[in-house]
Design brief:
162 residues; 5-stranded parallel β-sheet; alpha/beta; Rossmann fold
Length: 162
């Protein structure tokens, strides 16, 4: 009789876990990874936006750092892509500010830029940028790098895009 109770309890717990994880997976699959793009060049912005949207990412864009920061404050993205050269605030300062804020300190950041100088790459990485990609770039490589960062990000795991 005791074995029957133990087996029944095990079956109930197992079924509960299966239902819980299936429902959780369905919710996650319905959600989409949100990417924020910050670039003052509308043509570059559109190219990256199209690349991500074709791969089922939700994309929000900003042409200025203050606009991007407001978007991040109101509804944080899962990933930020930023150019170095920005009219208001350069990409280095923007990334540094993100790293200094508690709720954005671990937000994955990719810097996309025309600047291939070693000093710029080192500065970006020292400011907390997770990856650095120079133009021209392969859109598939950008997606691969973004997905790799998102996989390592504990709070931003959306299998629908990975």
């Amino acid at each position: 009789m005791e074995i029957l109770i133990i087996v029944a309890s095990f079956v109930v717990v197992t079924l509960f876990c299966i239902v819980f994880f299936v429902r959780r997976r369905e919710r996650v699959l319905k959600s989409r990874t949100k990417v924020l793009l910050l670039d003052d060049d509308a043509a570059s912005l559109k190219l990256v936006q199209t690349t991500f949207e074709r791969n089922k990412f939700q994309v929000i864009t900003a042409l200025q750092a203050s606009e991007a920061m407001a978007l991040i404050e109101s509804d944080p993205p899962d990933l930020v892509l930023v150019d170095i050269v920005e009219p208001e605030k350069d990409g280095f300062a923007f990334c540094s500010e993100l790293r200094q804020r508690q709720h954005t300190a671990n937000l994955p950041i990719i810097m996309i830029t025309d600047d291939s100088r070693r000093d710029s790459k080192l500065t970006a990485l020292q400011m907390g940028v997770d990856d650095y990609l120079t133009r021209p770039f392969d859109p598939e490589e950008l997606l691969a790098r973004a997905r790799a960062l998102l996989r390592r990000s504990h709070d931003s795991f959306h299998p629908a895009n990975l």
